[in-house]
Amino acid sequence: MLTPVLLASTDMPKTRPSEIVIADKSPIVQNGLRVLLDEDPRFDVIAVASDGERFLEAVHRLSFDIGIIGWEMPYLDGAAVLEALKTSDQPPRIIVYTGSQNRQIPSDAMAAGAAGFCHKSDPPERLVDTVAAVAAGRMVFPFGAGAGGTAQGDSLTARERDLLAGLADGQTNAQLAKSLDISVNTVKFHLKNLYDKLQVSNRAQAVARYLNDG
Fold this sequence. Notes:
- The protein is an alpha/beta fold.
- The chain has two domains: 3-143, Response regulator (Rossmann fold, 3-Layer(aba) Sandwich); 153-213, Winged helix-like DNA-binding domain superfamily/Winged helix DNA-binding domain (Arc Repressor Mutant, subunit A, Orthogonal Bundle).
- The chain is 44% helix and 16% strand.
- It has nine helices and seven strands, in the order E-E-H-E-H-E-H-E-H-E-H-E-H-H-H-H.
- The chain has helices spanning 27-38, 52-61, 78-85, 105-112, 124-135, 158-168, 173-180, 184-198, 203-213, and strands at residues 3-6, 18-23, 43-49, 66-69, 93-98, 116-119, 140-143.
- The longest helix is centred in the last third of the chain and has 15 residues, at 184-198.
- The protein is elongated and about 50 Å long.
- The two termini are 15 Å apart.
- The model is unreliable at 143-154 (pLDDT under 50).
């Protein structure tokens, strides 16, 4: 079973429920998610869409915090929705919720700008926890027990491998420094070399590569 990883935190106190719009091709999933989330006082489902086009219409008409979208949807799929949201001034944070067995989707979704991922085979509580974490400003993505290799794995030093694993666990630079018994400046130095080797520009992209190649 996939285990969620909290990648970053910008926790802010919330004074109102997080407003959510759901997009899924299945009416059963739409209704199930609405019931599940509306039972939680932290959330308020304000609209439901059956495809990516209607979800983007909701983005243009409404102001809401979180979108929960399928990956395989009519007219516009999840990838196309995420691409379209890049031009939005204040896009909602997106959680991809899919039943696809394609293991590439979590890393593709992260690279495209999603804030979280949850599989339909996971317990409902996993989705609720994911929504709560994303609402608090975190990124939540899964990785398999065998994750950890990279396409450039042979060129990574042992320290860079440790840092990459720490990034996947959601550790901050300060936490990485403490766990590895090095200074924060040394962490930054190693991260720069790590990003160069992986041909990425930030930790989210590095973890996406970690997920992709693991």
